[in-house]
Request: fold
Amino acid sequence: MSEQSKDKNASALPRKRIAIWIVCLLLLTSIGKLVAYEILGASELRDRIGQRVVLPSGLLKEPTGLNGRVCYLKRVKYRMNTRLGFFDLELNCESPQEKNTLADEIAIGLSPRETLDLLIVTNKLAGLEREQFLAQNPIPIVAHRGASKDAPENTLPAFKKAWLQGADAIEGDFHLTADNEIVCVHDANIRHYTQKNIEVKNLTLAELKKLDFGRWHDKQFTGTKIPTFKEVIATIPTGKRIFIEIKSDAKLVPPLIKQIRNSSLKLDQIVIISFRQDVIKAVEDKWPELKTFWLTRFKANENGELEPRPRTVLRTLESLGTNGLSTHFEGLTSELVKSFQKAGYEYHVWTVDEIPQAKMLVEMGVQSITTNVPQKIGLAIRGSSK
Reply:
């Protein structure tokens, strides 16, 4: 070996050692950051998934005032960020208040110090009196088929009463007529409302409009007509929402999407819900930006086990590509609700008409409450300040 080769090998050794030391230093720095995150509150933030948190204004790209922004925490995870270092913390949140000017979905990269700041502000909020806390961040109240206790369900009088009673959203059921029009009615057969034993799909809109859909509820509503989808959404105030339950099959999806596109509604005002998996899948395939929730109901079997099994429901949500789950309130626990929220899905409940149940569900962290009595439930869980 020549003297020149020996010199080259000798000079290469220090460079290799330097490179190894740099890699080790970066790894130690990275591990140190992860430890700092955990010590400063990342694990506590994970425990708050599905709960309400306050993002300090300094952490937001768009200022929202001194009090920051109240939101639901949906996901907490680490991500690579070359600007801040090897890791930062990503928070996915959703605003519960449509009046907020920011987008529903946000992702924020936090440094360890900012993570601590976020937790401090969140803990201060949690320390408020319960009524004050709920007044700052109310759970959305969804009027089930409108204010259906006070007016005939799924009619314009019921929806208009719901808005007057302070509902944040209305829920309506929709079927397709014989001439491919979309009408708002719960039952496929209209006998309950009109005393005529015939199905919606076998009548044209003109034929349905000749029938009385109000007298069955009370004489004062005599002459109330079945509303179309267009007539229902025309009642929706700015910033309010509609939960559209598709009762018929997936054939309703294309004309519904066409009418939504031609309306003045914004995407964040619309939620599509259905018990039918084919319907949810059809919506997700045709317009994935629309928010959808799959409807189901948990019941305990003879052994006290939930059916359907939560794991089965989770697999269904994954296969459908839906945004969340909406179930009846019976049998729910905080652990069950949070298990779906930690998996990245919203959790909503129906149909809650009693105040103790509503307050219990608020404590569980559900993300909306559907009720036949929106004024009663709204006042109970928000206080009289609204």
Q: What stands out?
A: Confidence is low (pLDDT under 50) at residues 61-67, 97-105.
